[in-house]
Design a protein that fits this description.
Pfam family, one: TauE
Subcellular location: Cell membrane
Shape: globular
Keywords: Cell membrane, Membrane, Transmembrane, Transmembrane helix, Transport
Strand content: under 5%
Structural class: mainly alpha
Family: Belongs to the 4-toluene sulfonate uptake permease (TSUP) (TC 2.A.102) family.
Distance between the termini: 23 Å
Transmembrane segments: 12-38, 44-62, 74-93, 99-119, 167-187, 222-239
Largest sheet: none
Length: 240
Amino acid sequence: MGMSGVEFALLSLTVGVGALLQVSIGFGLGMIAAPVFALVDPSLAPTVVLLLATGVTAMVVARERHGADLRGCGWALAGRVPGVLAGALLVALLPARYLTLFIAAVVLAGVALSIAGYVPRERRSSVLLAGMASGLMGTATSIGGPPMAMVWQRLSGARLRATMSTFFLVGSLMSLAALTMAGAVGAHSLRRTALLAPAALAGVLLARPLGRHLDVRRTRTAAMAVAVAGAAVLVGQQVV
């Protein structure tokens, strides 16, 4: 199925803004893009969003890799393995309608926990569980940021971005490998990724000059508001 000019412009804008947020605050591309992609073309979520996010996080890691908490990443990735397998199973077995509703539910749950101000202690067990949840959510919906953002929220800005980006780069590759084995990565996904890659690159390039002017708290609030709006429209579309 081809994309109209309006759909392409909407997806490009979403990817650009999501990439800018991903670079600036450590997550955001999946949370914002997944509901929009599922609305425009459900076959694009989660695979295309994950492919784009992998490229964006690779660029962040290349720039800020020295600030990452590698031990924390290791425990989180150990937890991510079973989560990835469970997420790939969901993608393979769930009908598109239910997968779409799951995407909306993940967005709303992530936002609700953030608003509630839940701050888990950064223990080995909590990092493992967050990694597992991130693996399941990230593979099934491309939204793996909220669990890790919660467990690592005590880290400073640069260290948070570096740690989360390192985790998401390796974790996204794991998810893509599992989705490939489940038959969810095909020529259609790769073509759409290539079309939208320039928008992701634009977001990354704009993050440096614009990022210094962004208030992190307000930016997160705005990102969550956009994500909730997308999830609400997604639910409405499936219910009606």
